[in-house]
Amino acid sequence: MVNALDMRDDKSKEVVNFVFNTMPFGIICLNRNMNMVYCNKQATLFLDRFKLPEEIPSVSRRIFDAINRSKLNELFPGEICLTKKFEGSPSNWIFRLSIFESLTPIIAIFIIEDKISNKMDVNAIRQQYKLTRKESDILRRVLDGLKNLEISKELEIVEQTVKDHLSNIYAKLGVENRNALYRSLLSPSNIQF
Predict the structure, then answer these.
(1) Among 186, 177, 109, which residue's Cα sits nearest to residue 144?
(2) What is the mean pLDDT of residues 15-19?
(3) pLDDT grade, residue 7 (50/70/90)?
(4) 1 has pLDDT over 60
(5) What DSSP element (H or E) covers 98?
(6) pLDDT of res. 174
(7) Which domains does the chain have, with CATH numbers?
(8) What helix, strand, coil percent values describe the chain, rounded to 5?
(9) Minimal CA–CA distance to 99: which of 50, 54, 66, 69?
(10) What percent of the chain has pLDDT over 90?
(11) Are 72 and 65 a contacting pair, CB within 8 Å?
(12) In whole angstroms, what is the distance from residue 181 CA to residue 185 CA?
């Protein structure tokens, strides 16, 4: 059986940081003082666009209060999950809270975007229109409602490169702009419910 990585080793820390920062969902950890003690790359990108729903700090305070009173399992017996729709996002966002009970308890908030692109076969679209992998990465983010600057931050490329790839995508799909791209691809036949 493989043991957990020894975090004293620099290479192990590097691996853990890589894994946490390339996860397809955000992770925020709060301590009992409601201070953020950890935030991965996806959570940072989320916080650049939106604020945490006001219910999150409220529920978190109640969780820490329940821990202090030794009533966590009584007051929070099941999963703690919240779904939210934000203005400017075509997706629903799911917030799942996990609690680490110890002398210094932590609440981990997992931020998961229910993306439109997850309901589409982007690989089939890539093959059909002969898109490069980078073009399909950008297409996925466009379908999910990200702006060029947000795409450039997420993919760690300059905004002009995003625009260049978008021009290539438009040409390959025979459309002139983002709206035409949406109309072309977001038909019921392309979306898997």
Answers:
(1) 186
(2) 85
(3) low
(4) no
(5) strand 92-100
(6) 95
(7) 10-114 (3.30.450.20), 117-185 (1.10.10.10)
(8) 50, 20, 35
(9) 66
(10) 61
(11) no
(12) 6
